[in-house]
Design brief:
The chain has 365 residues and is α+β, with helices and mostly antiparallel strands. It has 2 domains: 132 residues, Creatinase/prolidase N-terminal domain (Creatine Amidinohydrolase, Chain A, domain 1, 3-Layer(aba) Sandwich); 224 residues, Alpha-Beta Complex (Creatine Amidinohydrolase), CATH 3.90.230. Helices cover 36% and strands 22% of the residues. The protein is built from 10 helices and 20 strands. Helix 7 packs across helix 8 and helix 9 packs antiparallel against helix 10.
Length: 365
């Protein structure tokens, strides 16, 4: 058995142990990133049924060959009707009493169809988050994959930002960034690339528009790559022409907050404490009221995973977690600054994976 296969076996073993703790006889996994994490399957339609050391992947005829190539477990092809009909039949045949479903990823109609097929003989329980909890701590292979994705995104940013000029549209620069990521081998962007100039940079999730990038303004770029299924995420802010005093003041405050949050990342600390380090620094600079979102989030097979680095969050950081550190300050009518790195929690502290300089870069006019 290959090392990759051993990885999936180990992940399913740890999930089976979690099922025992949750008093579940079996679990039906429908969230596709979770299916991929447990089996390697990359198709768009699947349900994984797991009980103890036994696991079966259900999919449709389009994926007959692909599933058998990618998976190290039995594959059942449901040629007619929804996959859940086959899953429900197997659950009923096995005589299990308590089965978990991912309520956060299963529609009400799907849940009801399984419940009606099984009647009162099986108790369906919400098992949302069981797999996601395992996914929060990355193994060596995942860390290597994320590191490669981060490096690719940083390289693409470096190539694309050199082409940024006043008069270029936000959409054109976003397209150039995505193009460079594809040329470097990415499957695509990890999310819709954000390019926002001037006062639009005060919108934390601005979408690029046909508006032209203007001189003497802030330009915010938030981007990431999907490479071999794993995501990266980074934000950098540049200035078209020499930064104004106001822009420099805002940038320096956010950078100080970001560095404070990174310094707070150590195993055992709560994610809320990391958020507080960023928020407290901005408070000293009187910009805390302009910080309108959490300090970061986990990433991996999805761009947003646990843990969330928010005010009230009490999850403790563990070695192997990969999170973003991305405080920001957004001033209506002027613009916004967000500085974001992807970082790895190590046994002794933190490693910043993002190699891109955080110098306030000036784009020549």
């Amino acid at each position: 058995m290959t090392t990759v296969a051993h990885t999936f076996v180990d992940r399913r073993r740890r999930l089976a142990e979690a099922l025992t703790g949750a008093r579940l006889d079996a679990l039906a996994v429908a969230h596709l990133p979770n299916v991929r994490y447990l089996t390697g399957f990359t198709g768009s339609n699947a349900v994984l049924l797991l009980a103890g050391r036994k696991a079966t992947l259900y999919t449709d005829p389009r994926y007959t060959l692909q599933a058998r190539q990618e998976c190290d477990i039995p594959v059942r092809i449901i040629a007619r009707g929804p996959l859940w009909s086959g899953v429900a039949s197997e659950i009923g045949r096995r005589g299990w009493r308590s089965v978990g479903l991912e309520a956060s990823h299963v529609s009400h109609q799907q849940w009801q169809s399984v419940a009606q097929a099984l009647g009162r003989t099986v108790r369906l329980k919400d098992a949302s988050g069981l797999v996601e909890k395992l996914r929060m701590v990355k193994d060596a292979g995942e860390i290597a994959a994320i590191r490669a994705s981060v490096q690719l995104a940083a390289k693409a940013f470096g190539k694309a930002i050199r082409k940024a000029r006043a008069g270029m549209t936000e959409l054109a620069l976003a397209a150039e960034i995505d193009h460079q990521m594809r040329l470097l081998g990415a499957e695509g962007p990890a999310f819709e690339t954000i390019v926002a100039g001037g006062e639009r940079s005060a919108l934390p999730h601005a979408r690029p528009t046909a508006r032209q990038i203007a001189p003497n303004q802030i330009l915010l770029v938030d981007m990431g790559a999907s490479l071999n299924g794993y995501m990266s995420d980074m934000t950098r802010v540049v200035h078209l022409g020499p930064p104004t005093v106001e822009a420099r003041r805002l940038y320096d405050a956010v950078l100080e907050a970001q560095l404070a949050a990174i310094a707070a990342v150590v195993p055992g600390v709560t994610v809320g404490d990391v958020d507080a380090a960023a928020r407290g620094t901005l408070r000293k600079r009187r910009f805390d009221r302009l910080f309108t979102h959490s300090t970061g989030h986990g990433l991996g097979l999805e761009i947003h995973e646990g843990p969330r680095l928010g005010k009230l969050a009490q999850e403790r950081l563990e070695p192997g977690m990969v999170v973003t550190i991305e405080p920001g300050a957004y001033q209506e009518g002027f613009g916004g600054v967000r500085i974001e790195d992807t970082v790895l929690v190590t046994p002794t502290g933190v490693e910043v994976l993002t190699p891109t300089s955080k110098e306030f870069l000036e784009i020549p006019l």
